[in-house]
Amino acid sequence: MFDNDSMDTIAAQIKQADSVYIFIHENMDGDALGSGAALCSYLRRMGKTAFVIRDGEVPQNLAFMDRDYCRTSGQVPVEHDMSIAVDCSEKTRFPHNIELFDKAGNSACVDHHLAPAPLANFNYVDPDAAASAELIFKLFKAMGPEPDKEEAEALFAGITTDTGNFQYSNTTKETHEIAAQLYDYGIDANHVSVEIYETVPFRKLNLSGMALDRAEIYADGKIAMTVVTQDMLAKAGAIMNDSEGIVSELRSIAGVEVAILVKESDDGRVFVSLRSKTEANVQKIAAKFGGGGHVKAAGCTVSGKSWQEVYEDFKNAAAEEIQ
Ligand code: 5GP
Ligand code: MN
Q1: Which residue has the CA at smallest separation from atom 16 of ligand 1?
Q2: How many angstroms does the Cα of residue 145 sit away from the middle of ligand 1?
Q3: Whose CA is nearest to atom 12 of ligand 1?
Q4: Residue 89, SS3?
Q5: Of 170, 300, 302, 314, which is best to mutate to test ligand 1, by the most ligand atoms within 8 angstroms of its C-beta?
Q6: 281 HSE (CA, 13 A, CB side)
Q7: Which protein residue's CA is at the shortest distance from atom 19 of ligand 1?
Q8: Tell me, what DSSP letter sits at residue 146?
Q9: Atom 7, ligand 1: which residue's CA is nearest?
């Protein structure tokens, strides 16, 4: 990893900008939107022009955080002072918005993914942070003003989703300490949980049922794999974002060490989600195919191959990894 700039440096850079665009990754999750929305709201309260530039739709269960912050790159003026990448360390994670990102005179990146190289002029990347939302909280401390209730709830949303509701091994004492501090800003944690976890469209459960029905277990029960195809989406009346959560279900199976979900996109690309339970390093598997992420949660985007080919590639690579 490269050397980070200090959060104070990044705070000082942001303070100088009048207009700030916040870039989050495609297939956004609770941490990407939670971190982005919290920062956008905070910067607007400081009198700045701020937007979250989204690459793809806002999922229904996260929509409560988007209080008119999200825009596509075509919906905002090109000119802006600063671009900030949040929850992603590679520009290819927001493929449709790279040009707009590069139009700013200054840039920063605040993220918790292992990164091969700095993305921006100023970078704070901490792979030990459970969620980017933890780092945005630190950024707020460096900037000065306290977050309001909605901003604190968006940060809580980021933390609860990226830690599997405080279950995963990325959860630390500091994660809990930051979550505890968010209560001082008046968060209603149950409200956030109901929005995120109990606002599930029925079609999502149908899709999950179909995917689990065709799941396969390999390598003496250590690898669980399944696929979500365009055909399955059509049958369930679902969208690809509804596949979120299936890979965690696979990992929860007794004896499974590596869980893999292959997703056939409608544009020729194939997305892969990987999870490991204890020892295996799925970041390594993803990196073999140009992807990345974390040791226990990684992902990859493959172009130019059918989902069946990608499925075989990952099945073999996972078998090698757990040898
Ligand atoms: P998910 O499976 O939830 O989409 O992603 C799991 C982890 O892998 C996340 O940390 C995510 O940022 C990362 N990830 C997912 N897809 C990609 C990808 O195409 N490229 C890279 N470098 N990381 C990815
Ligand atoms: Mn994250």
Answers
A1: 299
A2: 32
A3: 293
A4: coil
A5: 300
A6: 6
A7: 300
A8: P
A9: 298
Per-residue confidence in pLDDT tens, the chain, 323 aa: 899 999 999 999 999 999 999 999 999 999 999 999 999 999 999 999 999 999 999 999 999 999 999 999 999 999 999 999 999 999 999 999 999 999 999 999 999 998 889 999 999 999 999 999 999 999 999 999 999 999 999 999 999 999 999 999 999 999 999 999 999 999 999 999 999 999 999 999 999 999 999 999 999 999 999 999 999 999 999 999 999 999 999 999 999 999 999 999 999 999 999 999 999 999 999 999 999 999 999 999 999 999 999 999 999 999 999 98
Comparing C-alpha atoms, which of 22, 23, 90, 31 is closest to residue 292? 90
Nearest to 240 by CA among 59, 110, 84, 111: 59
Asked if 244 contacts 263 with a C-beta cutoff of 8 angstroms, the reply is no
Alpha helices in the chain (DSSP H): 7-16, 30-45, 98-102, 132-143, 149-162, 173-183, 189-197, 202-213, 230-236, 246-251, 282-288, 307-321
Atom of ligand 1 nearest to the CA of 274: 2
Closest-lying ligand 1 atom to the alpha carbon of residue 247: 2
28, 86, 93, 251: residue to mutate for ligand 1 pocket, most atoms within 8 A of CB: 93
Ligand 2 centre to CA of 220 (Å) is: 31
Quick one: which ligand is closest to 294's CA?
1
> Against a cut of 0.90, is the pTM above it?
yes
